[in-house]
Amino acid sequence: MRVLWTHNFDPDELNAGVFMSKAAEGLRGLGVDVQLEYLDNLRSPLNIFKARKHVKKISKDFDLVHAQYGSACAIATLTAKDCPKVLSLRGSDWNVHTASFSFLYWHTRLAKLMTRLAIKRYDLVITVSNRIALDLQKKFPKVRYIALPSPVDVDRFVPVDKEQARLLLGFPNNKEKWVLFTSQYRNNPIKRYSLARQAVDLANAKLGNVRMRVASGLPHSQLPLFVTTCDLILCTSENEGWPNSIKEALACNIPFVSTDVSDLHDIADKEATCRICPPDATVLAENICDVLSTPRTENLRRHVIEMDVSTISERLLDLYKGLVLRKRSGLQL
Q1: What domains does the chain contain, in order, with CATH numbers?
Q2: pTM score, two decimals?
């Protein structure tokens, strides 16, 4: 089977589309010929027009085309001919920024508008979280969809001895409580770095010996060691699809304190050391202190073990096979 994956994750940007590349590797391991096609920067009508022509030209050589993002990528990929079309919604192509009238306020609304314009013309829509799936069902009840998270590499993100990990990172005999915060850009208003900073400062003032560790600008290859040195991961985002940083932390058996995003509340309902909080620095700090002071015996890894690369790849391949078979049989997709 030959599958075309269209995307707009700039390959020259650090860690852009890492989750996508990992998923593609998993499918290739199952014998699928996956071609990743970068459609360039799609922020101009001219580039969208060029991308549409390009997809129309090359798609005839593939059994299925899968747009890895909504927004303009979804619009461009609609020109694929004579094959099933699949669309993945990641979160930032569906959620909108509401906290400020910044560039993101308008950009996220335009992105969602383009997603909504394209969505009915896809044979299958994959959402990375159940929360997006439920919202999609309400707004587009006739659209065929399935919730399927992006995979996490559970072979690289594993629980390890924290003292040994800190030694390897260059912090021998360090006894601080480390709170992990992950954002590609600290000035991204959706991630709310300043809120996270304030919450950790308050936690340190109350508990002492609490330090914030920011994973920003690090190659993804260095993240497993960085993550395993931490005691807790903090997410203060306004919205998320299904945050890969939380998956990776859980795979390392590290609990989270988070605002109410994605499907994290489902895990927090089951785990005493995983907390959902309002976007209030004082409340976040109280929960950080509580979690850091609570002895940990739970197996948090169990919540993401079925999100591993092999399992997600097999499920994705089954979906592909079903769509291609129906297309070749002349059945309605």
Answers
A1: 2-151+308-328 (3.40.50.2000), 162-306 (3.40.50.2000)
A2: 0.94
